[in-house]
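re: that chain from earlier
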Amino acid sequence: MALPSRLTFLLLLIIAISFSSFALSKNYNIGAGDKIQISVYGEEDLSIDELYIDNSGNFEYPYLGQLNALNKTSEQLKNEIISGLKGDYLISPKVRVSIIGFRSFYVNGEVKKPGGYEYQPGLTVDKAIALAGGFTDRAARNKVYITQAGKDNLKNKVKLTSRVSPGDIVVIEQSFF
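^ sequence. v structure.
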């Protein structure tokens, strides 16, 4: 591959990853274990570089008091902050809420290193299994299930190309032969 072709390919890859991450954050509901960043243009005192969301989802925000981020999109949280700051504190606040770290997902069962792993946008079951060290010799490669975060232990049989979301639990069952 020639140098210009490689540069073009890398540029397109970076754009695709950025777009998928942006699209995910627009529809993504913030949950316990996520890290967010709140930026208010021109107002350093109102900006938060890194905020870890705990199980309650509550956090103290300057001038507004307790806010809750659980099950809200970054857009919804941004609008809540804008409406709270607008008028009494700022004329026209410019706010950005970004997800800078996703909660973990988990891989259990017949993998070499079961446990929790940091979520990455675009993650699929086969990539999750690779992060967990791959299948063991006893793994049933056609018996892979996902329990989705917040779905009360409802296991869904999935393909290796299925998407994994933050908080999901991927389970690989044992083969009988």
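The longest strand covers residues 139-147.
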